[in-house]
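Q: Start with the shorter request: fold the first protein.
A: Done. Sequence, then structure:
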Amino acid sequence: MARPLTFWFEFASPYSYLSAMRIDAVAEAAGVKVTWRPFLLGPIFKAQGWDTSPFSIYPAKGQNMWRDIERRAEKYAVPFKRPDLSRAGAFPQNSVLAARAAIACLSEPWGPEFCRRVFRAAFEKDLDISQPDVIADCVEAAGGVDRIYMHMAYSHTQKVALREHTDHAQRLGIYGAPSFTVDSELFWGDDRLEDALEWALRD
């Protein structure tokens, strides 16, 4: 019997976007149950002495990352639009509100669709996902009532839950997104999704 897989994602991560667009289909085909788990990379980066994404700290790494995303998006037939990096806060985006909303929405069957809508807003439409109206639109499009879930996103409960998710990720040794865990095994990167699924199917 397949073991469950946990999908650790960060809304500011373009590689997480690629995984989010395909994980449910490939996991269903493999017979593996997936749990979506949003967290924040910011505190993890700060623990390593970084004040932003390493893709921003090292320009050559960042330039190659964007081209790699374009190639992988083409491979998976996933629409992708490079963010306008001249816009303040374009990358990495502030994903706190989106992650808090996701924790609330993932209690519903349409939660993963909400997450995909947020990723599309960020990486297909180049919208600012720190804006409440953008997140509210994603809630409505996914099948929720925006005023209910936006209220929950701003609640103390969701703030604490997001902090707990991020602390849990750190305890697991997660250092980037997306990451996938199966029992105590950690797989990092969109290109390790299939490896994680294979591990979940091992006897």
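Q: Next, the second protein, separately.
A: Sequence, then structure:
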Amino acid sequence: MLTRIDHVMICVRDLAAGIDAYTRIGFDVQPGGTHEGRATHNAIAFFQDDYLELLSLREGQTIAAGSSDARLAEFLAKGGGFRYVALQSDDLAADVAAMRRRGVEVSEVAEGARRTPAGMELTWKAASLGPNNALPIFFVQHLTPIEERRRQSGRSSRHPNGALRVDRVYIAVADVAAAAANYGRVLGMPVPKIQRGAVIKADMAVFDLGPTGLTIAQPAEPGPAAEALARRGPGPFQALYRTSGMDVAARFMESHGVPPPARAIRNTGEHAMLVLPEHACGAYIGFVGPA
């Protein structure tokens, strides 16, 4: 079963610069380590049960043509930014089998690993969609217990911006009805009712995965969704985080050179604010919570 959003992947040309940008937004970002058999390294901001990943290519590594690292290099050459949403599974083999019964093209389950700077090896299983279902999502089942993953940086993360967990992610599309039907088939979920997103200025369908929402958004008027679709084409453009205090987060950002985030009211009636892509390595980073 797909249980929640596991993490968002922000791809950056320079990992140190990405760490600096997200540190100034108020995330406690720690070096994550290197990936086994790949030319990549990352940094992690861990929350209660999910995390934000900054991913980059290591200098001086040989990159094989046609490999996943080569595709990452192409993405970075176009500017990088928010690339993938990882969805967590509690039984990936069963989820992959169910997708195939629905006619979804999906890879075999493969094991992956990352070695942290402290020498800890974290392991998982993953599967990705094939070319006939090329959506910016993939699936992961962790083999390393979450308590150990929380300790991977050597301490429990406490974020100056008060971030607690991811609340929603947003994916820009040109046709929300068609895209929602496709996502529904891949996820094995009913297509949600289309609603208007007041902050992103888009018609959207929200697939609820545990406490998190995977949101498909078609621009309805000028705003973040329209800007992202025009700038990058279809794909993920915003991660929204629950925070324990928005005013505290905004003051921290301002004290670290990040302009005050734009504020608006969600269609839920909650207040939200957005850090713009120029300050977040090409992604919109949102916050929702008490003042």
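Q: Describe the second briefly.
A: The CA atoms of residues 21 and 280 lie 6 Å apart. DSSP finds seven helices and 16 strands in the chain.
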